[in-house]
Task: structure prediction
Amino acid sequence: MNFIDQAKVHVKAGDGGPGCISFRREKYVPRGGPDGGDGGRGGNVIIKADPRLNTLLPFQRNRTFKAQSGKAGMSKNMHGKSGSDLIINVPPGTVIKDPETGRVLADLVKPGETFLAAKGGLGGKGNARFVTSTRQAPRYAQPGIPGEDRWLLLELKLIADVGLVGPPNAGKSTLLSAVSAARPKIADYPFTTITPNLGVVSLSGQRNMVMADIPGLIEGAHKGVGMGLDFLRHIERTKVLLYVIDAGTQELDKALDDFEVTRKELAQYGEELLHKPQAIALNKIDLLDEKGVEKAISAFKKYGLPVYAISAATKKNLEALLEGLYSMIHSSDHKV
Ligand SMILES: Nc1nc2c(ncn2[C@@H]2O[C@H](COP(=O)(O)OP(=O)(O)OP(=O)(O)O)[C@@H](O)[C@H]2O)c(=O)[nH]1
Ligand SMILES: [Mg+2]
Result:
């Protein structure tokens, strides 16, 4: 399944306008001084995240983007007009890459974020600028500098409805693979997942939602500890957060601690993340007896969030979890 919407575009910034060669003409002054003005700067090409857009499809037809060139300088020391910038609007979540090396040049996550895709050329200096004590009448001016010119690859990442957050090894990838066709790598060591994985979760009646498995968050993630920082940016775009906590292989205190550390990391990255609808999945309950499950659920109730006791491995209670998440996504009062 292809989750990525892609387009290759060519951007060309405006050229700088040439400087002007001119001499003043005045009555009774046979040889006036040089008065050629500078050329104008070429316009930049800027790529901007626009929340009104949600696909890169329009770029399949329109692939070349050229900003205006600067105008030539004029006599009487008049500067040429600068070319206007060209703004290309793309949906938030667009990653801009170098098509040859695949290097990521920008990742426009938030509405309004911009990337300078091609820089306009500087205008050339007019001959008035080249006057020196020994050269009073320069007969030359600079040409404008050409604007930058390059190909860019645009890739749009699908926005997930649900983002799975939690410490390493909690079972986030196991959960994603249990409920979708996604096949993320699963292993019993921390940081198995190093890039977000997306899966489409199908519910009865042709309903579906997109779930993202985000690399494990540990204390300090918001400062770049572990792998979480880049991915925290992507959580900003998910509608609902599901904390996945290992309640089966560790003491209850440690499980509560996992939740609090994760929540603190989210808050330190951006307090508004905690305004999203959230729920808690207590995972690995196949390793607990009934009493243990009840104890865990009641301990987590104090956070005031919906709590689901599940086993990603045996698929226990996954249906109830998914139904709960689906209604959170579609409840009218949620903030995105
Ligand atoms: N018993 C049991 N083990 C589970 C369950 N879910 C996951 N595991 C195991 O827990 C380990 C970690 O699972 P992952 O799904 O890789 O965990 P993760 O949260 O994606 O971890 P990172 O990618 O490292 O952040 C694996 O050995 C899984 O088999 C469960 O419900 N029950
Ligand atoms: Mg994982």
In short: The chain has a mean pLDDT of 90. The pocket of magnesium ion (ligand 2) is lined by residues 172-173, 184, 192-193, 213 (CB under 6 Å).
